Amino acid sequence: MTRQQSIHPFERAIAVRQDSDGTVLAEASTDYWAFMGQFGGVTAATCLNALLRHPDAAGQPIALTVNFAAPIQEGALRLSLRRMRASKSTQHWSIEIHQGDDPEPRTTATAVLAERRQSWSHQPATPPSMPPIEALRELVLPDTVPWVGRYRFWFESGAPVRSSEPLSPPGTACSRFWLADAIERPVDMPSLASMADTFFGRIFQVRGQIVPFGTVSLTTYFHSDADELRAIAAARVIGRAGARRFHRSYSDQSGELWSPDGRLLATSHQIAYFKA
């Protein structure tokens, strides 16, 4: 096995390097391909990975917003990062991803890093009540969208439904499931950023059909830090997803990622386009 083959596919997908002129470079990953381009979760994770490796970055991620202006296509990516403002406790960054000769960015993002100090802690949120993975059947989907095959899903409720006609009445928008990388690895900050986009389009679940769909903007809030994730050393998390309204071609959806021992690790909110 070569060194390249021994690297986890996720590590390859989000890898960044600095060119001689200081430009941050990456490569779009066909291992994590979606319908029209790279899976948005990996794009978000690449942005975060580039930021965490920046020499001027300080602190832990607490918020990441990624706007998917155009699909990421195969080939090289150029990332530009700029620190917009910093205080003693926070840094605010902007990130853009360019491809080829296109003068406009394909992805724009903002991120906030913060010094997470010891303080009072309280979690009003209640984790989903989930059976052990061994009690659930693993979801097996057709091998048509590569990114889906890079994860494993065990649904307790709200598993994807396929119907020849739109469901009437519409199905539930809520799902609860266990989630892990197909090749297991400990969950870290970049993988949380990617997993925050693994909640299948709620429109698919509600209608029982695959329709044209794409995330426009995704915001992830991180409620844990790198030290806590290393201490937990979890390779599996619990996901809970839902949505509030589908209206005039756009819908929201939200998600939660929990540790097996009931700690809320991250929450996500997105607005997505659909055609139905």
Commentary on this structure:
Helices cover 16% and strands 35% of the residues. It is α+β, with helices and mostly antiparallel strands and 276 residues long. The chain has one domain (3-115, 137-274): Acyl-CoA thioesterase, double hotdog domain (Porin). Strands 1, 2, 3, 4, 5, 6, 7, 8, 9, 10, 11, 12 and 13 form a 13-stranded antiparallel sheet that branches.
What's a concise summary of this model?
With 276 residues, the protein is of the alpha+beta class.
The succession of helices and strands, N to C, reads: HHEEHEEEEEEHHEHEEEE
Whole-number count of domains: 1
What does the main sheet amount to?
A: 13 strands, antiparallel
Query: Which regions are unreliable across 5 or more consecutive residues at pLDDT < 50?
Result: none
Q: How far apart, in Å, are the first and last alpha carbons?
A: 46 Å
CATH homologous superfamily grouping: Acyl-CoA thioesterase, double hotdog domain
Number of helices: 6
What's the CATH topology label?
Answer: Porin
Strand content: 25-35%
- Based on the structure given, which CATH architecture is correct? Beta Barrel
CATH class: Mainly Beta
Give the assembly state of these chains: single chain
User: What proportion of the residues is helical, as a percent range?
Assistant: 10-25%
Structural class: alpha+beta
Number of strands: 13
Average pLDDT for all residues: 95
* Global outline: globular
User: What's the Cα radius of gyration?
Assistant: 18 Å
